[in-house]
């Protein structure tokens, strides 16, 4: 090595060592609100006259690392706070860390005109933490920002991320109904902007939560206790969807995305022509005495064609502004989703009646392929006008609509399994559901102590299943989707539709007065609602035409010839259809409550609510049928008492009691019958409404910003719980899946449900963790049958749908400077009963499962960002078992694909992975 080279290397090394010592300083600190001490995430921190600039993290922290030694002027800016705060700090060359903190004062302005309150703080995590802390009841809230970043696009799937909530999924794996604290969906209620909405479901009161696109929401609230001012039919809890509100200034938001479900990489998506489907049955079009010809039923909706690699798409638009000196606020939000989903399902159907000693016997081995297209449309608009500083009025409208087109291909190997032949059943189903709500709302400050608010509401939910069609080809020897030979066996065509209309009026009066030096907030009010439910059903059963006693060979659906079953050829099935009925329901409620500070730290809220329910129903069934029509009425007294003790400014201790009810669904009380997925489903006019006493205890800590720690316990005692079970008709021997009370004179004891909940959210700079865990234990003792035994026996088990263990864990990375958000979310649901059996030990249990999802968003520019969502990364299947030894079933009768000897797998559904990626624009 030459001297010159050595000199250069030495100089370079010396410069590097000097650089290490010079660029060794660190400045770090926190930025908080001077009044609340909450971290000010998103504030800008810069070093004057340098290139160094950064954004404050969610925990309020910031840091500059490896900066040259010297003296720096540190500036902090935050929109809505006073002008730049600054401080001077010196960085030495000895690798020391300099710390500095800033407390910013909010910006205050004098207004010469009306003061207008604009957008609420429910869009941010920090804002909803404040709402949870200040609420009079136990709440868990998801902010709009959190909902936006979740891997989910519907409210149903977003709900599963919240503490104590599991979801029931549809046959295609889409989340649909919410179970809160182990309480079946029937025990929960759904509100939009605090107003109860009707359900489009044909039998139930609970609302399918997949009908709501999640990008319409400003926040999602789940209330787990009730005050007297809240409607009392929510034993499990209340889900309140707070829709987007008018902004303070002009706003434009657009999102567009596309995606794919990998299930259709392995097989095609099977579609049918739903444009030929008639919304009305022949009986509706022509009358009950019309002579129907089998040729009038179209065949095109049973002609299934392949669609390769269908693309999912979503689009959302939000526009808003304030006008007329900011007195009039307007927001319009619209969402469109076109999602292709499906599943491959193995179902091993046990016979309705087991062998002696309740040994299960299997008669059908079904393989099913579901192909489902969901088209969702949501439109939300709100107009609010500030008349003056004491009066304001608003008009809110929401319309959500979902079209579901589903084809189902079934191979039934039960017919002649030993010969290697099977039945083929193809089904097409169109489901159209919609909810419309219009609310006119007013708020009036009548005096310093007295104010009033009112709402006039019109709501209507509709559901239609036009031409639900299925045909059966027996003794087929080849695959149905590739051409096959078989006998034309049978076909059913069914029309179902219903509507649920609400007219409601709410009035609340609030009066504040000092009593013995303590301010007391008195509140009283009432509700009047009239509901009308119409349900229509028309069904036609056909069989393959027979020539000279020889069954018809099947070649294609267009050439198949059909004849009506039985001798009645005049519109069979239309006259006296058991599932056609009308229900009117009137609910009148009144309440009184008081809220006051018993001490400086202890708040007390208590009162009484009274609800009166009156129902009349009429069916189209024969006059001789018992309970063909009926009247039901009852009155409930619903007291509640809530204590909130402020341990510190950031800690609460809560204790609550409330009584609540659950009204049966309309299909529960009307003696209806409908052919379900696996059993005939029927109503029970003798079923009673449920009542429950509910107790809650919770400790709350809200240390900073979005951070929180919640730890609570709950206990519920339910009288007359309602669950579905299988009963056998005494006249026909038909097995009917029907609602039952399991605590009447024929059974022992009420149901109990108790558990503990824990919630933790914590940010460490750019990293964060969000977790919740709920342990629930419910017990109900019911009578069961043992085949061959002389008398029924009792069995104690959990409530249907209740899982002992449920939890969520999300690992978060948020870099405000890069505009990058990453989330890895895992949800776990423990073992639970999915279907209750009439027979001892033969309930169907859904296995414990865990699902891993992923989402990210990356800011591209000030207005544009890219986002992606990946669902079911682990390809988690849904598995259902009978908890019976496999050895108890004869080897020749065992379902295939068994995994162990202590349970029998009866159902397995595969959904695969889904992707969605797109762009957002925000102005």
Short structural summary:
The protein is mainly beta.
Key terms:
5-stranded mixed sheet, 923 residues, Immunoglobulin-like, mainly beta, 22-stranded antiparallel β-barrel, 2 domains, Maltoporin, Chain A, 6% helix
- How far apart the termini lie comes to 62 Å
Instruction: Look at the structure and give the mean pLDDT.
Output: 88
The major β-sheet equals: 22 strands, antiparallel, barrel
Instruction: Give the total of domains.
Output: 2
The number of distinct helices, counting runs of at least 4 residues, comes to 7
Question: Can you tell me about this structure?
Answer:
- This protein is mostly beta strands and 923 residues long.
- It has two domains: 3-104, Immunoglobulin-like (Sandwich), CATH 2.60.40.1120; 255-922, TonB-dependent receptor, beta-barrel domain (Maltoporin, Chain A).
- It has a 22-stranded antiparallel beta barrel. It has a five-stranded mixed beta sheet with strand order 8-13-14-11-12.
- A hairpin with a 5-residue loop joins strand 9 (165-169) and strand 10 (175-180).
- The protein is globular, with a radius of gyration of 31 Å.
Q: How is the secondary structure organized here?
A:
Blueprint: H1 3-22, E1 25-33, E2 44-47, E3 53-55, E4 61-67, E5 70-77, E6 85-91, E7 97-104, H2 125-134, E8 139-143, H3 144-149, H4 155-159, E9 165-169, E10 175-180, E11 188-192, E12 195-196, E13 217-223, E14 237-243, E15 251-261, H5 263-266, E16 269-271, H6 282-286, E17 305-307, E18 312-323, E19 328-350, E20 362-388, E21 391-416, E22 421-445, E23 450-476, E24 487-515, E25 518-544, E26 546-547, E27 550-551, E28 562-564, E29 581-597, E30 602-619, E31 629-648, E32 651-662, H7 666-669, E33 673-675, E34 680-682, E35 690-701, E36 708-719, E37 722-728, E38 735-741, E39 751-764, E40 767-784, E41 793-797, E42 805-815, E43 820-829, E44 832-835, E45 844-846, E46 849-859, E47 864-871, E48 878-882, E49 904-910, E50 914-922
Parallel strand pairs: 1-7, 11-14, 34-38
Antiparallel strand pairs: 1-4, 2-3, 2-5, 5-6, 8-13, 9-10, 11-12, 13-14, 15-18, 15-50, 16-17, 18-19, 19-20, 19-49, 20-21, 21-22, 22-23, 23-24, 24-25, 25-28, 25-29, 26-27, 29-30, 30-31, 31-32, 32-35, 33-34, 35-36, 36-39, 37-38, 39-40, 40-41, 40-42, 42-43, 43-46, 44-45, 45-48, 46-47, 47-50, 48-49
């Amino acid at each position: 090595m030459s001297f010159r080279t050595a000199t250069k290397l030495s100089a370079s090394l010396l410069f590097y060592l000097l650089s290490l010592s010079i660029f060794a300083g660190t400045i770090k600190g926190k930025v908080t609100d001077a009044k609340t001490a909450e971290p000010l995430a998103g504030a800008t921190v810069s070093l004057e006259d340098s290139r160094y600039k950064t954004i404050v993290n969610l925990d309020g922290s910031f840091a500059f690392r490896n900066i040259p030694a010297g003296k720096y002027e540190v500036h902090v800016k935050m929109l809505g706070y006073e002008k730049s705060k600054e401080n001077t700090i010196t960085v030495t060359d000895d690798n020391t860390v300099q710390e500095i903190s800033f407390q910013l004062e909010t910006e205050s302005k004098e207004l010469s005109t009306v003061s207008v309150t604009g957008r609420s703080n429910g869009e941010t995590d920090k804002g909803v933490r404040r709402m949870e802390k200040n609420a009079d009841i136990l709440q868990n809230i998801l902010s709009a920002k959190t909902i936006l970043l979740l891997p989910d696009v519907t409210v149903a799937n977003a709900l599963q991320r919240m503490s104590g909530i599991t979801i029931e999924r549809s046959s295609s794996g889409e989340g649909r109904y919410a179970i809160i604290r182990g309480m079946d969906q029937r025990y929960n209620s759904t509100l939009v902007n605090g107003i109860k909405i009707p359900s489009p479901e044909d039998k139930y009161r609970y609302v399918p939560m997949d009908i709501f696109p999640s990008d319409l929401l400003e926040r999602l609230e789940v209330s787990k206790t009730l005050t007297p001012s809240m409607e009392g039919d929510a034993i499990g809890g209340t889900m309140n969807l707070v829709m987007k509100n008018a902004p303070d200034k002009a706003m434009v938001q657009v999102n567009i995305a596309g995606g794919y479900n990998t299930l259709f990489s392995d097989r095609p998506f099977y579609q049918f022509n739903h444009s030929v489907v008639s919304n009305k049955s022949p009986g509706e079009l022509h009358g009950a005495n019309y002579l129907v010809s089998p040729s009038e039923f179209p065949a095109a909706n049973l002609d299934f064609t392949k669609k390769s690699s269908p693309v999912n798409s979503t689009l959302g638009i939000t526009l808003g502004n304030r006008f007329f000196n900011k007195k009039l606020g307007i927001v319009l939000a619209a969402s469109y989703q076109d999602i292709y989903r499906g599943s491959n399902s193995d179902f091993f159907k046990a016979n309705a009646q087991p062998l002696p000693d309740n040994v299960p016997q299997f008669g059908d081995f079904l393989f099913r392929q579901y192909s489902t297209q969901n088209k969702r449309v949501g439109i939300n608009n709100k107009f609010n006008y500030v008349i003056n500083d004491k009066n304001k009025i608003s008009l809110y409208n929401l319309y959500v609509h979902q079209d579901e087109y589903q084809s189902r291909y079934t191979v039934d190997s039960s017919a002649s399994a030993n010969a290697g032949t099977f039945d083929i059943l193809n089904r097409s189903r169109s489901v159209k559901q919609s909810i419309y709500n219009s609310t006119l709302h007013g708020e009036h400050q009548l005096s310093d102590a007295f104010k009033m608010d009112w709402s006039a509401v019109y709501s209507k939910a509709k559901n239609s299943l036009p031409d639900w069609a299925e045909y059966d080809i027996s003794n087929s020897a080849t695959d149905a989707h590739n051409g096959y030979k078989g006998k034309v066996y049978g076909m059913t065509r069914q029309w179902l539709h219903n509507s649920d209309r609400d007219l409601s009026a709410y009035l609340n009066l609030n009066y504040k007065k000092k009593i013995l030096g303590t301010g007391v907030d008195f509140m009283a009010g009432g509700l009047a609602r009239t509901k009308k439910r119409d349900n229509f059903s028309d069904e036609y059963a056909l069989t393959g035409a027979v020539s000279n006693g020889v069954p018809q060979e099947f070649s294609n659906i267009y050439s198949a010839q059909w004849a009506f079953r039985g001798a009645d050829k005049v519109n069979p099935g239309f006259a006296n259809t058991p599932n056609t009925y009308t229900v009117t329901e009137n609910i009148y409620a009144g309440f009184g409550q008081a809220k006051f500070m018993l001490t400086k730290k202890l708040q007390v809220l208590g009162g009484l609510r009274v609800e009166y329910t009156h129902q009349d129903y009429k069916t189209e069934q024969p006059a001789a049928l018992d309970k063909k029509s009926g009247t039901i009425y009852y009155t409930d007294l619903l007291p509640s008492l809530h204590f909130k003790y402020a341990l510190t400014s950031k800690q609460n201790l809560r204790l609550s009691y409330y009584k609540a009810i659950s009204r049966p669904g309309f299909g529960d009380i009307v003696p209806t019958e409908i052919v379900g997925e696996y059993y005939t489903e029927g109503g029970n006019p003798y079923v009673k409404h449920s009542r429950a006493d509910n107790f809650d205890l919770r400790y709350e800590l809200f240390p900073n910003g979005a951070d929180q720690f919640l730890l609570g316990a709950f206990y519920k005692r339910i009288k007359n719980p309602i669950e579905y079970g299988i009963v056998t008709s005494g006249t026909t021997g038909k097995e009917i899946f029907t609602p039952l009370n399991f605590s009447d004179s024929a059974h022992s004891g009420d149901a109990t449900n108790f558990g503990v909940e824990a919630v933790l959210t914590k940010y460490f700079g750019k990293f964060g963790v969000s977790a919740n865990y709920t342990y629930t234990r419910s017990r109900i003792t019911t009578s069961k049958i043992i085949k061959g035994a002389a008398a029924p026996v009792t069995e104690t088990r959990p409530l249907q749908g209740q899982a002992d263990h449920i939890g969520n864990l999300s690992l978060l990375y948020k870099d405000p400077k890069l505009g990058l958000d990453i989330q890895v979310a895992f949800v776990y649901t423990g073992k639970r009963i999915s279907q209750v059996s009439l027979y001892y030990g033969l309930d169907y249990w859904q296995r414990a499962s865990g699902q891993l999802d992923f989402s990210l968003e990356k800011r591209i520019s000030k207005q544009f960002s890219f986002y992606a969502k990946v669902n079911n990364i682990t390809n988690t299947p849904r598995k259902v078992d009978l908890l019976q030894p496999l050895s108890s079933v004869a080897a020749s009768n065992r379902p295939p694909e068994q995994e162990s000897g202590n349970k029998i797998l009866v159902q397995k559904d595969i959904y695969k992975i889904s992707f969605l990626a797109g762009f957002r624009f925000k102005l």
